[in-house]
């Protein structure tokens, strides 16, 4: 094949490539014309979030730093789909873009490397993380622990841990699973560390007017995952927090019912506000939005303000 039928843009990290290959394989299995050699091209793109490793994401612009350069190529039609970890996708997409295809959600929980649990860590333990969500929940549970910045991909953070730059760190279990890294830590229950919105989900962003890309993705879209992600992103939509607001949300599907746990935390961990919701799966986005509105009402309004 002289030119690909479909070009998938992605971050260039080992994990991002694995995730994009997972979508590529699903598309090839669903559409015979995409199964031919060379029919789908994976296009690695370096993003600002990958380039800048010496500062926390909140200090340099937040989630959009992992999507902006990929979206630029989507606008220019140099790629047909932008493949993302949906947790990295901003709440609101640029005009003319849609988040359409989602693969089945992997394990959304966080894993603690270097310790059995947060409760079992010795006083003064140094926790390496640059996630404000993880930092705030750690400090809420254990204000006696020390947080140090820990940026980089999975391999980089594991190397930093091995070098002694921190005693423990937290990573998404889905990333470890996809990289084939096993038996390296202890998975934390959502009651101990509530996951990031859409953690564990691979999704594709397309131009809203690209009916061909939409048709390809509709065949591989996992309905239950779309429902829970729609609920969790409804939460974000209502909260409209800055990139410095620690927010967590995790929805699970039980038959035709959804259960959502959500929280916001002060960055120093001193205060936490939680809500639980249950309702019909058909109203998932509204359920998430309602939970976000309640958190807006009960939480200190200052934590939603930018720097």
Describe it.
This protein has 10 helices and 13 strands. The chain has helices spanning 14-30, 48-51, 57-60, 68-75, 132-141, 154-162, 173-179, 211-218, 223-239, 284-298; strands spanning 6-11, 40-45, 81-85, 97-102, 110-113, 126-128, 146-148, 168-172, 186-187, 202-207, 247-254, 257-265, 272-280. Helix 9 (223-239) runs parallel beside helix 10. It folds into 3 domains: 6-103 and 201-221, Periplasmic binding protein-like II (D-Maltodextrin-Binding Protein, domain 2, 3-Layer(aba) Sandwich); 110-187, 3-Layer(aba) Sandwich (D-Maltodextrin-Binding Protein, domain 2); 232-304, 2-Layer Sandwich (Double Stranded RNA Binding Domain). The chain has a 5-stranded mixed β-sheet with strand order 2-1-3-10-4, with helices on both faces. Strands 7-6-8-5-9 form a 5-stranded mixed β-sheet, sandwiched between helices. Strands 11-12-13 form a 3-stranded antiparallel β-sheet. The N and C termini lie far apart (51 Å). A hairpin with a 6-residue loop joins strand 12 (257-265) and strand 13 (272-280). By secondary structure, it is of the alpha/beta class.
């Amino acid at each position: 094949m002289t030119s690909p039928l479909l070009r998938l843009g992605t971050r260039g990290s080992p994990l991002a490539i694995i995730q994009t290959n997972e979508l590529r394989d699903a598309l090839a299995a669903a559409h015979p014309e995409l199964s031919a050699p060379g029919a789908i091209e994976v296009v690695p793109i370096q993003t600002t979030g990958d380039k800048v490793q010496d500062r926390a994401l909140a200090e340099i612009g937040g989630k959009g730093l992992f999507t902006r350069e990929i979206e630029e190529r989507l606008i220019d039609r140099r790629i047909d789909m932008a493949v993302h970890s949906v947790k990295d996708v901003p709440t609101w997409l640029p005009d003319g873009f849609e988040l359409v295809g989602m693969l089945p959600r992997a394990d959304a929980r966080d894993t603690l490397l270097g310790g059995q649990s947060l409760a079992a860590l010795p006083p003064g333990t140094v926790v390496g993380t640059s996630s404000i969500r993880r930092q705030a929940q750690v400090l809420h549970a254990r204000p006696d622990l020390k947080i140090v910045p820990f940026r980089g991909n999975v391999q980089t953070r594991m190397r930093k841990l091995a070098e002694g730059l921190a005693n423990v760190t937290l990573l998404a279990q889905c990333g470890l699973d996809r990289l084939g890294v096993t038996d390296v830590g202890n998975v934390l229950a959502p009651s101990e560390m509530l996951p990031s919105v859409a953690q564990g989900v691979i999704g594709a962003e397309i131009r809203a007017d690209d009916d061909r890309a939409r048709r390809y993705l509709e065949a591989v879209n996992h309905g239950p995952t779309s429902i829970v992600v729609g609920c969790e992103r409804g939460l974000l939509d209502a909260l409209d927090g800055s990139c410095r607001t620690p927010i967590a949300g995790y929805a699970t599907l039980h038959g035709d019912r959804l259960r959502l746990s959500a929280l916001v935390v002060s960055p120093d961990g001193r205060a936490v506000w939680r809500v639980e919701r249950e309702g019909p799966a058909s109203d998932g986005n509204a359920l998430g939005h309602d939970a976000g509105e309640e958190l807006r009402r009960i939480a200190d309004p200052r934590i939603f303000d930018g720097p």
